[in-house]
From TrEMBL:
GO terms for MF: 4 iron, 4 sulfur cluster binding; 4-hydroxy-3-methylbut-2-en-1-yl diphosphate synthase activity (ferredoxin); 4-hydroxy-3-methylbut-2-enyl-diphosphate synthase activity (flavodoxin); iron ion binding
Pathway, per record: Isoprenoid biosynthesis; isopentenyl diphosphate biosynthesis via DXP pathway; isopentenyl diphosphate from 1-deoxy-D-xylulose 5-phosphate: step 5/6
Record key words, sorted: 4Fe-4S, Iron, Iron-sulfur, Isoprene biosynthesis, Metal-binding, Oxidoreductase
Residue stretches making up the IspG TIM-barrel domain: 20-289
Gene source species: Pseudochelatococcus contaminans
Name recorded for this polypeptide: 4-hydroxy-3-methylbut-2-en-1-yl diphosphate synthase (flavodoxin)
Keyword Iron part of the UniProt annotation: yes
Chain sites annotated for binding [4Fe-4S] cluster: C309, C312, C355, E362
Limits of the IspG C-terminal domain: 306-407
Reaction catalyzed: (2E)-4-hydroxy-3-methylbut-2-enyl diphosphate + oxidized [flavodoxin] + H2O + 2 H(+) = 2-C-methyl-D-erythritol 2,4-cyclic diphosphate + reduced [flavodoxin]
Length: 415
């Protein structure tokens, strides 16, 4: 059999980023080739200043670079500047995005301190107003954005699509010689809703550098199709997110599938995971999931990665799972301090492997890795540093000794 002397795999990198116009959101640049921004949204009542400040602070400390809050009534709008001020007192300057539906024009008009305190306004063109009122109410929000120098996100959504536009497109489609399926027409309505509204915002006087678009759908394939189309038809900065992604692993998997494919194609300037938390659950999960997607795909680095094998019948004790979990928790909890003391530490790669089959090999690829003994293997754990076997750990203190070695490595390389 003839085998080529060198087998070259296809390029292992994403497509070039789709060119978009950069938008400054309170000092965070979205689009224009800037690093892909992680954002999140609170689920507290915005009128409850203390709870909202606490959650925004937790999201920001986890790494959310923009945080969106609901502004649904006068009490919420009134609370916004107090929330911004309380965050500043805590040293948290994360830009706040106001999420407006139905009465955004009125809330922004009646509460100028809210309009000023927010770094961006999110408008849903499907519910900014209906019939004659729609254009006027949309114009009011855009004029206020222009007056305060704020960007807007025009966020169309499958669940609240502009019904007049959809009806018109459905009628036109039914008269066509080759009508499309209803779902394709709905996708087109979503894209048009975003693009028409953006064009209108520009006519009113908002620069292209103040407009971000999104067109969220809850089905993965529809979302991919819609964003490919948006990217093909415009150069507005794009906010990606699968709407109503769901709970737990389903929400994370569906969002990662959709966003991962689009990012790989160079589409997307900021992302959000719309995860439903367990009752009382940790809202920050959506931030960590977004960071992990960007990091595992090689777009950005946030925290040191721990590579761990899944374990199998060769790891019958829980020592390996416990060490992998301990190391991950220890790294996560140490990061706030490490980030200031060890610049670049987020690039660290650690491997915790379960047995001799892949353990030494995978550990050699990491900056520092340990290969624990599998069932029936000699009870010793070789440690590899920068690809070389450095020592072998034995006995009950393996976990603590390995943490000390990781600490020493960080001190040496990033200190
Ligand atoms: S490295 Fe060993 S323990 Fe881990 S999955 Fe592979 S064979 Fe199983």
């Amino acid at each position: 059999m003839n085998v080529a002397p060198v087998s070259v795999a296809a390029e292992a990198r994403p497509a070039a980023r789709h060119r978009t116009v950069a938008v400054d959101v309170g000092g965070i640049v979205v689009g224009g080739g800037a690093p892909i921004v992680v954002q999140s949204m609170t689920n507290t009542d915005t009128a409850d200043v203390a709870s909202t400040v606490k959650q925004v602070a937790a999201l920001a400390r986890t790494g959310s670079e923009l945080v969106r809050i609901t502004v649904d009534r006068d009490e919420a709008a009134r609370a916004v500047p107090y929330i911004r001020d309380a965050l500043m007192v805590k040293g948290i300057e994360v830009p706040l995005v106001g999420d407006f539906h139905y009465i955004g024009h009125k809330l922004l008009t009646d509460h100028p301190a809210c309009a000023e305190a927010l770094a961006k306004y999110r408008i849903n063109p499907g519910n900014v107003g209906f019939k004659d009122k729609r254009d006027k109410q949309f114009s009011t929000i855009v004029e206020i954005a222009a007056k305060y120098g704020k960007p807007v996100r025009i966020g169309a959504n499958w669940g609240s699509l502009d019904q007049e536009l959809l009806t018109r497109l459905m009628d036109e489609n039914s008269k066509s010689d080759a009508p499309l399926e209803a779902r394709a027409v709905t996708r087109e309505a979503l894209v048009q809703s975003a693009l028409i509204s953006a064009a209108r915002a520009e006519e009113i006087g908002l620069g292209r550098d103040r407009i971000i678009l999104s067109a969220k759908v809850s089905a993965v394939q529809d979302l991919i199709a819609v964003y490919r189309d948006l990217a093909r038809r415009s150069d507005y900065a794009l906010h990606l997110g699968l709407t109503e992604a769901g709970m737990g692993s389903k929400g994370i998997v569906a969002s990662s599938a959709a966003l991962g494919i689009l990012l790989q194609e160079g589409i997307g300037d900021t992302i959000r995971y719309s995860l439903t938390p367990e009752p009382g659950g940790d809202r920050s999960l959506e931030v960590r999931a977004a960071q992990e997607l960007l990091q595992t795909m090689g777009f950005r680095t946030f925290v040191p990665l721990v590579a761990a094998c899944p374990g199998c019948g060769r790891t019958t004790s829980t020592v390996f799972q416990e060490l992998a979990r301990d190391i991950q928790h220890w790294i996560t909890s140490s990061m706030p301090e490490w980030k200031t003391r060890y610049p670049g530490v987020e690039n660290l790669n650690v491997a915790v492997m379960g047995c001799i089959v892949n353990g030494p090999g995978e550990s050699k690829h990491a900056d520092i890795g340990i290969s624990l003994p599998g069932t029936g293997e000699t009870p010793s754990a070789p440690v590899f540093i920068d690809g070389e076997k450095a020592m072998t750990l034995k006995g009950a203190g393996i976990a603590d000794e390995f943490k000390t070695l990781v600490n020493d490595y960080i001190e040496r390389r990033f200190g």
